[in-house]
Design brief:
Elements: E1 4-7, H1 17-21, E2 26-28, E3 34-36, H2 52-61, E4 67-70
Antiparallel strand pairs: 1-4, 2-3
InterPro entries: 3Fe4S_ferredoxin, 4Fe4S_Fe-S-bd, ET_Ferredoxin
Protein name: Ferredoxin
Function: Ferredoxins are iron-sulfur proteins that transfer electrons in a wide variety of metabolic reactions.
């Protein structure tokens, strides 16, 4: 089943944990806030299966639960499935 990821930029504290765990998925803007590289943080790109473990590590390492993962696209809304 396809997986999608997005970062809630309103709760991200720029700690760097997600990018350290999954550098092929997450990067940081000029303020250090994380975003998803695949789709400019829209949550619409399917995460490649070979990155699932890294994605899970990024989710687990996020102290603010800002990294979201779902089986459906977020369409730019990080709170869509909360």
């Amino acid at each position: 089943m396809a997986k999608y990821t997005i970062v809630d930029k309103d709760t991200c504290i720029a700690c760097g944990a997600c990018g350290a765990a999954a550098p092929d998925l997450y990067d940081y803007d000029d303020d250090g806030i994380a975003f998803v590289i695949l789709d400019d943080n829209q949550g619409t790109a399917v995460v490649p299966e070979d990155l699932y473990d890294d994605m899970a590590d990024g989710v687990e390492g996020c102290p603010t639960d800002s990294i979201k993962v779902a089986d459906e696209p977020f369409n730019g809304d990080a709170l869509k499935f909360d």
